[in-house]
Amino acid sequence: ENRLMSSRRSSKTKATKRRERRESVKRRNKRKSSASGNPEDNLTEVTINNEQRDKFGFVLDEFMHLRLGHREQIFSYLLTTNYSDKFTTIFLLTHEYYLNSLTILRELLNIFDNPEVLPGSISITKERILDILKLWITLRYNDTSNEIWSTAIKAFINSLKNSSEKKERIWYRKVSDITNERYDSKLKRSYSTTVSVPALDFKKETHEELVTIPQNILDLDPYIVAVHMTMKDDSLFKKIEIKEYFDRGWNDPDTNLYKFIEHFNEVSFWIQTEIVKLPNVKDRSLAIGIFIDIAMELKQLRNYHGIMEVLSALSSLAVGRLKNSWKFLPSKSTANHRALEKLMNSRHSYSLYRQEIASIRSNTPALLFHGTIMQDLNLIEEQETFTNGMVNWHKMDSLSKVFLQIVNRRKVQYYLTIDPKDNTLIYLKKAQVITSD
């Protein structure tokens, strides 16, 4: 009986808290000033026009989380409410589903020049806009396809540099590291994969290191191959812009994301070719073992995309039917292969792989397996973006969680070294590939 009464008191407390949160939201919205004008004509006027909460405000779910919101009201919340960086992050990663980036940027800059259009302190309004721009650039640092947007950002920052206002010059120093010309050079030092591999001259066949070009995969060092695979995967990954993931963008052949997926298939076919072209069972068995060793090296490098490139090749019909070759595989290689397959098994939505990824520190380089990313985005994209003309914020929240994984991983640099005399790259560039055609 005591436990039952305690449970009832706990339930009542939770209900009271939910009610208090609702009342708090209502009071906060009532404090916002209103302004006249047609909300569809001017975005700024909409952001401060809150008389019709039911029409322009957010719809909250049973847990008081944002569920639906009018697109202009979302922009209003970005500027005038006390939400955490989580709200801003979701908005900046997903706004192109319902608003134009250039329109948003122009509106932010317009409000910065005319901060009196919003209630509250002018200096706080300006600083909020600068914080938004700083986070925007940080999250979307390599989304360079919109040159007009990039030019407008740089022009704005330069105007702060030469401002007569001391506070604006201070703000300039705050954001200059990630928004002006120094940002571009800093990016190359901090985020790009740099590997100490010298440029090789393929025309000078007299070089000593070119005399002993490997003849097949049996002549290659698994670690060196894994490093080259990781270098290539990482360079392609870092070229992908977040908006390429929108609306299943991997089906668009003009995107870097599509090229990244195509490279996965090319590597898989190359591995199959390297195995089946060998003349006898013993060599094919050795080749299978070497690719398992390569996959183990890829695991040490935390290149899970590369691991799946190898595993998909080994499970292909061309390699899988080589029963005798698999029969002669050393027990250690067999055990490693099983461990890798267990790790990357699709059971329970790749649960073991996801657990391992979650355990990797954010400052440690890792290449995500894009199969899980595409799977997650496919499920999320099944949701409608709009409901009764309002943005589905639950969908935006789910999308941003996937996008944030990608953003965080592409910020971290691989530091890899290779012996300058190594000829693996020469072999890989000349390697023959037999496709499914």
Write the layout of secondary structure elements.
Elements: H1 2-30, H2 43-47, H3 53-56, E1 59-60, E2 66-69, H4 71-80, H5 85-94, H6 101-113, H7 122-139, H8 147-161, H9 166-179, H10 181-190, E3 194-196, H11 208-211, H12 222-237, H13 256-276, H14 281-300, H15 304-314, H16 317-320, H17 323-327, H18 331-343, H19 347-359, H20 370-381, E4 386-387, E5 390-392, H21 393-410, E6 415-417, H22 424-430
Helix pairs in contact: 5-7, 5-21, 6-8, 7-9, 8-9, 9-10, 12-14, 13-14, 13-15, 14-15, 14-18, 20-21
Question: Could you provide a short overview of the structure?
Answer:
The protein is mostly helical and 437 residues long.
Q: How are the strands ordered across the major sheet?
A: 1-2-5-4
Report the mean per-residue pLDDT as an integer: 79
Low-confidence stretches: 1-12, 29-56, 180-211
Terminal CA distance reads: 73 Å
Specify the structural class: mainly alpha
Oligomer: single chain
Which range best describes the helical content: under 10%, 10-25%, 25-40%, 40-55%, 55-70% or over 70%?
A: 55-70%
Largest sheet: 4 strands, antiparallel
Count of DSSP strands = 6
Shape: elongated
User: What is the count of helical runs?
Assistant: 22
Strand portion: under 5%
What series of H and E elements makes up the topology? HHHEEHHHHHHHEHHHHHHHHHHEEHEH
